[in-house]
Amino acid sequence: MRHIISILVNNQPRVLARVASLFGRRNFNIESISVGESEEPGLSRIVIVTHGDARTMEQVSKHLHKLIDVIKVQDLSIQQSVARELLLVKVGATASNRAEIQGIIEPFRASVVDVGINSLMIQATGDREKLDALIELLRPYGIKELARTGITALPRSMQIQPKAQMHA
Amino acid sequence: MTTDQKQASTDRELTGSEILLRCLIEEKVEFIFGYPGGAVLPIYDSLYYGSIKHILYRHEQGAIHAADGYARATGKPGVVIATSGPGATNLVTGIATAQMDSIPLVCITGNVPQNLIGTDAFQEADITGITMPITKHSYLVQDVRDLPRVVKEAFHIATTGRPGPVLIDIPKDVSNAKAPFSYPETVSIRGYQPTTNPHPLQIEKLQQAIAESKRPLILAGGGVVTSGADQQLIAFAERAQIPVTTTLMGIGGFPGTHPLWLGMPGMHGTVAANRALLECDLLIGIGARFDDRVTMGRIDKFATGAKIVHIDIDPAEIGKNVDTYIPIVGDVKRVLETALKDPPVSQSQAWLEKLKGLKQQYPLTYKQSDNMLKPQWVIQHLYETTGGDAIVTTDVGQHQMWVAQYFRFSRPRSLISSGGLGTMGFGFPAAIGAQLAYPDRTVISVTGDGGFQMTAQELAVVALANIPVKVAIINNQCLGMVRQWQEVFYQRRYSEVDLSGSPDFVKLAEAYGVKGLRARTVDEARQAWREALDHPGPVVIDFQVDPEENVYPMVAPGAGLDEMMLGDEKA
Ligand SMILES: Cc1ncc(C[n+]2csc(CCOP(=O)(O)OP(=O)(O)O)c2C)c(N)n1
């Protein structure tokens, strides 16, 4: 199962290296990783998307807790949460098909953030499936360059029904 | 402020290296094990007038294993200092050794000045990066004003919870910079709050499981020794009537002469211990991590009919290797103390009888020989003449297993051996550390002719300081344990295990000014050992033993504990 792990850490030099190296050393895989400041000065939030069964996730969490700079570990995939990533994609575009591309990206609430002679740069945010779908729609125009940030996430304030129970 | 006042206030400031030394004194450090170099010159300069005893080893690896031996013998943290670059990288094996066995070490390395960090400057190595996976925590000190807090935290982290090595990397400019000194009284680290008190509900579950069990077994590991829970373990096992097997790291945590003791389990374990693991209905792991040398990595064949209880201070150990029925997180000593308040009794009489029978039917044995010295005999002789109270350190290999099998340790912290990493070259320097801590106890370094040659240069240290370690080389003229595996699993294709070209160990010892003795027969061995014990200083004894001897019982890697090879004598 896919898991989104949110890790609150001291904003110390090498803290990201410690976390990432722990995953590598213990043979846990990382699908994406994103880091940034948190609500509290001096603390950062690392969000890691990973795969594994319940036993592996328990180990991931316990080993993360062993790191001195780790303050809190949450598995956001067993509660209701909002997960988003940012996509920037440069697609081939000519004067004649620009309007057509605009039409494609509009339902995705994506926007054009840069225009070149033969290309457009498009910015979109959303969950992974939405961005995957957008990329597939843009592929026929020729994808010149693409960058994704990896997922960042927070739990929802209202936990209407815990997800873990929904699965049970 | 007048100029005079200004002068006075800067006078009260200390350099980073002076601050470091003051911190170490505050931590009641007795010995520093180390080796100097450019990046630690300021620290060594401060040591020059200091009160802490520094021992100069001949290789940083010797220094860190000695610090480790000191820590294992005393339970106090060992402190080692090395310079930047090659000095620091020479610590790596020792750091990993301590990490694997949860030994408290504070490792101080110098580094190049901060303006040179990252430039591949002379003798620069990213030692915090290199050692990240093998330390409990590490610090690169960037400001001299952080130094007291960092040292305080480092000692706290190294010695509490599950102990381990902590690295403090100090750039030379930080050692030279000045700041006022004050040592913090308390530590508060938000992300570090080890659980020491067990959950009462879990203890209740344990009590109930014991009361219901007919074939209970305790698997005691290094955690018993670390937490000083040996007396509690004896009381608990006796009261509940549960037999005990101790892992290599747990040896001494339960007396080797106790009727409830079954011996060591696993790859070279006793028949009684391994059969108990196979047949128990309740397995209580106490400060033991279910390593593959015990389970053989065959969880499908390990204690399959048993409820497993796992007691450990480190929550990450629970559920890592085996599924646990009752997890108990806490300090082993506290857990046992709590459990002893309301002690349960198991219904284990028939089980104890059966195991007693197995112990009698399958004792550890070997074939005596008229013309050759048997390594097992040597170990047994060392045991009989010192009575289980000696501190014995080992290297890694056959001799290590024979010590574990034939030396009946009666108290904790008396077997000092690299269990987790299996580091050759560990034993002799570790013995020096242990002997420094206990100058009046008999400290024996049982070592192989292979392992001894990895750190034999530390003979200079025992010679110079007259440290009376007795080095017993079990000399089989080969890398014995590797030879054994090649014999059993590679059809006797003995690839690169012949140690021809080794020095004459007696002459080697004498070259350093250390007494050297040799023994080829039982009589010579008796006499040499007597002479060694009577000699007040260090001695090296070259026990030339049967090179063909193997360690049995043995379970092949990948096999289950039910597939024990017993050796020719018992076949
Ligand atoms: C540093 C290191 N290198 C290699 C090994 C692998 N190894 C394990 S036992 C052994 C043989 C040890 O031979 P010796 O020291 O003579 O002891 P014996 O087995 O003969 O008692 C070797 C090479 C090791 N444990 N440590």
TrEMBL record, chain A:
Pathway where it operates: Amino-acid biosynthesis; L-isoleucine biosynthesis; L-isoleucine from 2-oxobutanoate: step 1/4; Amino-acid biosynthesis; L-valine biosynthesis; L-valine from pyruvate: step 1/4
Entries under InterPro entries matching the protein: Acetalactate_synth_ssu, Acetolactate_synth/TF_NikR_C, Acetolactate_synth_ssu_C, ACT-like_dom_sf, ACT_dom, AHAS_ACT, AHAS_small-like_ACT
Known catalytic reactions: 2 pyruvate + H(+) = (2S)-2-acetolactate + CO2
PROSITE patterns tied to this protein: ACT
Assembly and interaction partners: Dimer of large and small chains.
Protein family (similarity comment): Belongs to the acetolactate synthase small subunit family.
Name this polypeptide is given: Acetolactate synthase small subunit
Species this chain originates from: Polycladomyces zharkentensis
Name of the gene this protein is made from: ilvN
UniProtKB/TrEMBL annotation, chain B:
EC number: 2.2.1.6
Domain (Thiamine pyrophosphate enzyme TPP-binding) ranges: 395-543
Metabolic or biological pathway: Amino-acid biosynthesis; L-valine biosynthesis; L-valine from pyruvate: step 1/4; Amino-acid biosynthesis; L-isoleucine biosynthesis; L-isoleucine from 2-oxobutanoate: step 1/4
Claim: ATP-binding is one of the keywords in the record: no
Keyword annotations from UniProtKB, A to Z: Amino-acid biosynthesis, Branched-chain amino acid biosynthesis, Magnesium, Metal-binding, Thiamine pyrophosphate, Transferase
GO molecular function: acetolactate synthase activity
Enzyme class, UniProt record, top EC level: transferase
Cofactor(s) listed in the protein's UniProt record: thiamine diphosphate; Mg(2+)
Domain Thiamine pyrophosphate enzyme central: 203-337
Cofactor note: Binds 1 thiamine pyrophosphate per subunit. Binds 1 Mg(2+) ion per subunit.
Reactions mediated catalytically: 2 pyruvate + H(+) = (2S)-2-acetolactate + CO2
Residue ranges of domain Thiamine pyrophosphate enzyme N-terminal TPP-binding in the record: 15-128
Pfam families per the UniProt record, alphabetical: TPP_enzyme_C, TPP_enzyme_M, TPP_enzyme_N
Record-stated family: Belongs to the TPP enzyme family.
PANTHER family referenced in this protein's UniProt entry, alphabetically: ACETOLACTATE SYNTHASE CATALYTIC SUBUNIT, MITOCHONDRIAL, THIAMINE PYROPHOSPHATE ENZYMES
Protein name: Acetolactate synthase
Gene (name only): ilvB
